[in-house]
Specification:
The chain is α+β, with helices and mostly antiparallel strands and 204 residues long. It folds into 2 domains: 3-64; 69-200, Immunoglobulin-like. The protein is 33% helix and 32% strand. The chain has a 9-stranded antiparallel beta sheet. Strand 5 and strand 6 form a beta hairpin. It is elongated, with a radius of gyration of 35 Å.
Length: 204
């Protein structure tokens, strides 16, 4: 056998090895350019969607936080701190159209801590006392005692059990209060309380 024959066989073997290698390489090839582009688009869309969700969540958190108003003042000779929020929707409390209903938490150095509702129109049927129904989110309503002070300076009704009521508010995203009115029956006010900053009422 001459060198030419030997070289020919070696060349054929090498050609076979190269062909096999090429086939294996073809079988293990990665995704095509179109597949890579599609995957990149899907990843970008997912990232954009996540960003939009974060933006919406941040805007909603800002809206809920802005719903609360905090004030510090000297009232009746004593320092007072309040946290107040209006109902998410106005309520018809006197039969003459929907008006604002406000929930206030107050801490006065002489009068102590209290929680009360304030109406713009109508009045509470709560003299000397009554019961309101308070629901936190989807939980069952809780009856809480309430009373209407003998004054016409403001249409206000105090809710007793201030500490428990404050904790209930702090744990809720939405608070619903059903209260009796002199126009007859009960009315319901709903408050989006999730943005409450409890640090604004230290010690509560």
């Amino acid at each position: 056998m001459g060198r030419q024959d030997t070289g020919y066989r070696v060349a054929r073997r090498l050609a076979g090895v190269c062909t096999l290698t090429a086939l294996v390489a073809c079988g293990e090839a990665g995704p095509t350019l179109a597949e890579r582009e599609a995957a990149a688009r899907a990843a970008q869309e997912a990232a954009d969607q996540a960003m939009r969700q974060r933006t919406r969540a941040a805007r909603e958190a800002d809206r809920l936080a802005a719903a609360w108003r905090y004030q510090q003042a000297t009232i009746g000779g004593g320092a007072q701190v309040t946290a107040a929020i209006f109902a998410a929707e106005d309520v018809d409390t006197d039969g003459h159209g929907a008006r604002a209903v406000q929930l206030v938490f107050r801490d006065h150095e002489e009068w102590g801590r209290s929680a009360y509702l304030v109406l713009e129109a109508g009045d509470f049927a709560c003299r000397p006392r009554c019961t309101v129904q308070v629901s936190a989110d989807d939980r069952e309503p809780q009856p809480l005692a309430a009373w209407r002070p003998e004054t016409d300076e403001a249409i206000a009704m105090f809710i007793e059990g201030t500490a428990a009521f404050w904790r209930l508010t702090g744990d809720a995203a939405r608070l619903t209060i059903a209260f009796p009115v002199t126009a007859g029956g009960t009315r319901t006010a709903t408050f989006d309380v999730a943005g409450l900053d409890e640090s604004k009422m230290p010690g509560w």
